[in-house]
Q: What sequence folds into this?
């Protein structure tokens, strides 16, 4: 059975992402979620750490893309100073936005790494397409109401994955 929820790599924070490892693995594009991956959902603009991270991604030779389920206004405001491609209202875990992004970036799933904080949206969507998946711990504990519902079910998925010996919440492999 194909993996759906299990990430390829589980890290504490985007700050711990080994960009050289991605480049050496043939990754050309880093797709990042915004809310609770880079900043809390209620933080409108990137902080200095996120700006430095984006610069280091670009310096590594990777192209960076923001793919978010949030609305265009929020995503555009966040990305305004970053000079990266954006795909708002992505409807993750559906495939359409990933397919559009791959066509726009002229790359294959195996050349894409997806960084996100949710098993049910980020990991499921990227795994369904065949991308390399990186799960990160949420940067904040506060969530939107709809995300709180996802977190409830996500905890069930974490429990199943733990029972299968595939993934333990909070046990990072960095």
A:
């Amino acid at each position: 059975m194909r993996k759906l929820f299990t990430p390829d790599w589980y890290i504490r924070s985007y700050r711990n992402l080994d960009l050289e490892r991605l480049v050496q693995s043939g990754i050309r594009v880093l797709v990042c979620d915004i809310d609770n991956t880079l900043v809390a959902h209620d933080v409108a603009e990137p902080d200095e750490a996120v700006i430095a991270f984006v610069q280091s991604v670009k310096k590594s030779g990777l192209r960076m893309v923001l793919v978010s389920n949030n609305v265009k206004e929020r995503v555009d405001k966040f990305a305004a100073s970053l000079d990266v491609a954006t795909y708002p209202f992505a409807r993750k875990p559906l495939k359409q936005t990933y397919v559009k992004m791959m066509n726009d970036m002229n790359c294959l799933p195996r050349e894409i790494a997806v960084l996100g904080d949710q098993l049910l949206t980020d990991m499921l969507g990227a795994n369904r397409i065949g991308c390399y998946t990186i799960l990160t711990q949420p940067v904040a504990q506060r969530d939107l109401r709809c995300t709180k519902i996802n977190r409830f079910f996500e905890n069930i998925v974490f429990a199943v994955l733990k029972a299968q010996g595939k993934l333990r919440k909070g046990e990072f492999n960095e």
Remarks:
- The radius of gyration is 15 Å.
- The longest strand covers residues 63-67.
- The longest helix spans residues 145-163.
